[in-house]
Specification:
Length: 79
């Protein structure tokens, strides 16, 4: 009997962990529509700098209303 109880407990923990992982994944904000941003850079920036410039341009486009802000992934499923 103790062996069954341990197996049952591990099964419940696995289900809880899977559920928590799904909720975390489903509530992460993601861009839901295409948003094209442009920026120019002088010199030879690194890949990390280019990513930062692109992120800043995207945030400015969202703030200006040219792009819709990201929303939780689950909103795309229901609407």
């Amino acid at each position: 009997m103790p062996h069954d109880r341990r197996r049952s407990l591990l099964a419940w923990l696995a289900v809880i962990l899977a559920g928590m992982s799904f909720v975390y994944w489903a509530t992460r904000p993601v861009p839901h529509d295409e948003c094209v941003v442009a920026y120019s850079v002088f010199g030879k920036p690194t890949g990390r700098e280019l990513d930062e410039y692109a992120q800043q341009a995207y945030e400015e486009a969202v703030a200006d209303g040219r792009c819709e802000p990201p929303w939780p992934r689950w909103r795309g499923w229901v609407g």
